[in-house]
């Protein structure tokens, strides 16, 4: 029995009170604690704050009611034209998105072959698992599959060797965004690492090559590079050779992202104290060993936010393919909107496309946060 | 330096090998046709992802004439700024993308413009509530205008000539313009009158909007090919003329075979390949024009199906009627 606690009859006086020093701890009064107090202090602390709170609440309320009304309550989900939608509802006309859904996803990919797109997408997710989660069992074997995945996907999507050939100009819609985005992401990281290391190299030729490559890429807008891929390259290859436009585009997007990636990683490399490099040397590690075992794991860890930033930017840049005559998800939206049956529903298209990009980019950003936390070894 | 010189030499060599589009198309088995990324009635995709519209049908007619199959077309959607680049880099064989024939584009940009398929002119659309009855009253107005087009230049000229001012709101596509105009971010939207009619047809209250009477420019819209390949230019040119002549002679997609076999009119017989060998002179076969007509119909059929009075776009033939009906469509004789 410790003094000051409520148990035991001794502490209570005859009229039900407490003996001095024995009153139990009470929770702080609600005037200085709890949600009510928090609201009072933070939202209604002064006249200005009260006014701001009320105005903000009003705007939030009207925005949310408008959005919910437009997107769900007053929205039309079925119909064969904009007129059908307008006849039953005043809000969004999601019937349009539903009507063109497969076009948005697969573009002009021939209908009987679309299972190949689905399959390569499922395989993509499987290929990503060993990269994303290092604690999975049998990881090293799974990584072999991941390395083979680009070839499997290329075979599935383009065909040949038993599958019907599908020309790359039939790629379109979301599938085109994903193909370009994933290729860019997958190849720009290793190329970027090599470039970043090359930029710090002791060998002048390697250094000059890497620096000039990075600076040229960073000095030119992506849209210009895509134009070069579409237009200039055909001047340099012998007439009659057919160098696939999509491949040219993939190369350009990858190189572009690698240039930025190299600089992000260089930032990470420079943040590693010299002592780490020297310690690696002192242990007798060769250059690649010291990079692989000592320097890069630390440098990449620091660079995660920048790397993911580059990934996200690259992913969103995939909509630029319209300049070389390919319709991605946004382009399909525009060409579908020119159908007189549906004309005038651009808001719905933009909301739909924005939603798709938000989901993908937000997932990337959340994963990077999780990874940062997991790799955090500081104090 | 030597590398530089050889690079330049390669560039010149590449640009000198402009001839031979016909061989390329035949070898490829597909016509690469540059169209608009989306213009109601002229080029758009339907639910199944098939390109439709006036311009898309014209592409199919050319493909039918050259390759023998109107479906062997690869459509390359292009914006106003990228269309000529895509043509010159040989990504496309021909442009059917409501492209205005102008002196500078023809002579200085070195493109070959072929017969006009649609005569248009630039107009203005404005809310009736603004109380404007003529384009001359638009002093100080904000105007939505598509960039990289001739309409942009016409607008500047017209306002300069009339000594009035305006504030341009540059936009990229027709859909974007529609949105901005309806949101009242611009007082008026200017583009080809056909486009204005098509856009107005989709408004919730078309009656509240007025297309001003002034047509401030001539917009002859037609196919474009690269400079310097006369054979290919001839093929596209005479395919368009074949469609126009077919309307004149009453040849349709449905009766082309019968007319070719039964007609006694030598004009019809020459066009459809039952007499003479006009196709052979183009480097094609005798039936080229018949195939082009059978693919999507004659000019009138293509017009009526895509933009005519019975479609939501509802354009009258107007200037685009055959010359016999008071229009401007006039094809030279097939002989």
Textual characterization of the structure:
- The complex is a heterodimer of chains A (379) and B (335).
- Chain A has 379 residues and is mainly α.
- Chain A has 3 domains: 31-73; 98-109 and 166-375, Orthogonal Bundle (MetI-like fold); 111-160.
- Chain A contains 15 helices and no strands.
- Chain A has helices spanning 34-43, 47-73, 82-88, 95-99, 101-106, 114-132, 139-158, 173-199, 204-219, 222-236, 245-270, 274-282, 287-317, 329-337, 346-375.
- In chain A, α8 crosses α11.
- The radius of gyration of chain A is 30 Å and the shape is extended.
- The mean pLDDT of chain A is 88.
- Chain B is of the alpha/beta class and 335 residues long.
- Chain B has 2 domains: 2-119 and 220-325, D-Maltodextrin-Binding Protein, domain 2 (3-Layer(aba) Sandwich); 122-217, D-Maltodextrin-Binding Protein, domain 2 (3-Layer(aba) Sandwich).
- Chain B is 40% helix and 19% strand.
- Chain B is built from 14 helices and 13 strands.
- Chain B has helices at 2-16, 21-28, 54-66, 83-88, 103-108, 150-161, 174-182, 193-201, 230-249, 256-262, 266-272, 278-282, 288-296, 299-306; strands at residues 31-36, 44-45, 51-52, 73-78, 94-100, 111-113, 118-120, 122-127, 141-146, 166-171, 188-192, 209-211, 219-226.
- In chain B, the strands form 3 sheets. In chain B, strands 1, 4, 5, 6, 7 and 13 form a 6-stranded mixed sheet that branches.
- In chain B, α6 links the parallel β9 (141-146) and β10.
- The radius of gyration of chain B is 21 Å and the shape is globular.
- Mean pLDDT of chain B is 89; it is low at 1-18.
- Chains A and B meet through α10 and α14 of A and α1, β2, β3, β4 and α4 of B.
